[in-house]
Amino acid sequence: QVQPVESGGGLVQAGGSLRLSCAPSGRTFSSYNVGWFRQAPGKERESVAAINWSGGSTYYADSVKGRFTISRDNAKNTVYLQMNNLKPEDTAVYFCAAHRYTCSGYGCYALPSRYEYWGQGAQVTVSS
Fold it and tell me: What pLDDT is attached to residue 13?
C-alpha cells in the first residue's frame, strides 16, 4: 500500500496562486493513478483533478478547468496541483488519493470510491 502526504496549503488572496504537492510515504507513485479532491464545510467531497500513472492522461472538474493544472514528476516521486486565479469558492481541504486499477475515463479518475489510499488533507483558504 501507499500513504499519500499533501503539502503546500495555506492562505492566499483571490486571484493568487498556490501549488500543492503530494508524495507517498514508503513507496513510489510511479505505477499509481493520482487524484486531487476537495471538501468544504458542509459539502461533500468532490473531484478536482486526476492524472494517470504515466502522466499521459488528465482529468479536470469543470469548475477548475483553465485555472488548475495537475502534473507529476516521477523523478521526484511527486504529483502537483498548480492552482492559479484562485477564488473564494476554492476554499476547502484538499486531499490527495491514489489507486492502481487498470482503467481510464471519468469512472477511473473522478469517483472517490475508486481510490484506495488517501492523505490527511491540506487546508487551502482563499480570502476575498
Answer: 98
Element housing 107 (H / E):
helix 106-109
Give dist(CA 53, CA 100) in Å, integer. 8
Burial class (CB in 10 A: 0-12, 13-18, 19+), 119: buried
Q: Are 28 and 78 in contact, with CB atoms under 8 Å apart?
A: no
Q: Is 90 helix (H, G, I), strand (E, B) or coil?
A: helix
- In the chain (128 residues long), the average pLDDT of successive 10-residue segments reads 93 98 87 96 96 91 97 91 98 96 90 96 97
C-alpha cell at 116: 484506495
Query: Cell 487524484, residue?
Result: 35
> What is the number of helices (H) and of strands (E) in the chain?
1, 11
